[in-house]
Structures are given as C-alpha cells and as structure tokens.
Amino acid sequence: MNKFEIIEDLLQEVYDPDFPAIDIYNLGLIRDIKIEENYIQIIMTLTTPACPSADLIMNLVEQAINDEYPKDKVEVELTFDPLWSPDMIKDEDLKRMFE
C-alpha cells in the first residue's frame, strides 16, 4: 500500500461525533489529500460551517496521521466551497439514509 492509500485508510477511522456511524472519509468530508516529501495536507469540509465539533475533528485527523507518520508535518485545512451535502457521501447505502 502506498502512503496515499494508508492515509485514506487512517481517515476512515475518524468519525464526526454527529454522525458516529459513518467515518469522515465516506461521509464525504475529505476534499483532497496532498502529499509531499515530509508534508501532508488534508483539505476537508464539515457538514456545516457552524459545526461545534470542528476543532475536535480536525485534531483527530491530524492525530491519526501523526500517529502513523510522526516525522511528517500535517496540516488540516477547512473549506466550505462547495458546502457539504449528502450527495458527497461515498457509500450509496449510507447516502440513502439522507434521502
């Protein structure tokens, strides 16, 4: 498995407290993963810009990656363009929960 795939797997172990049945990756919160030599940038969104768990989720993302890659600098950046919608959920079965 390459580093990108490992990071994708790590992100599938992080959950939004408001949606504990779906990890943030499959919930569609991860917009991009950028990897340079010793630098990992995660561009993500939240289900709402007013998410009360924003800091917690961002810290969990950073911690999950730092646990696997302690020598890398990890940056988590938020974006709300476009806003999250249930259409962004990756798993079709889970997407039906929001219809």
UniProtKB/TrEMBL annotation:
<dbReference type="Pfam" id="PF01883">
    <property type="entry name" value="FeS_assembly_P"/>
</dbReference>
<feature type="domain" description="MIP18 family-like">
    <location>
        <begin position="7"/>
        <end position="77"/>
    </location>
</feature>
<dbReference type="InterPro" id="IPR034904">
    <property type="entry name" value="FSCA_dom_sf"/>
</dbReference>
<dbReference type="InterPro" id="IPR052339">
    <property type="entry name" value="Fe-S_Maturation_MIP18"/>
</dbReference>
<dbReference type="InterPro" id="IPR002744">
    <property type="entry name" value="MIP18-like"/>
</dbReference>
<protein>
    <submittedName>
        <fullName>FeS assembly SUF system protein</fullName>
    </submittedName>
</protein>
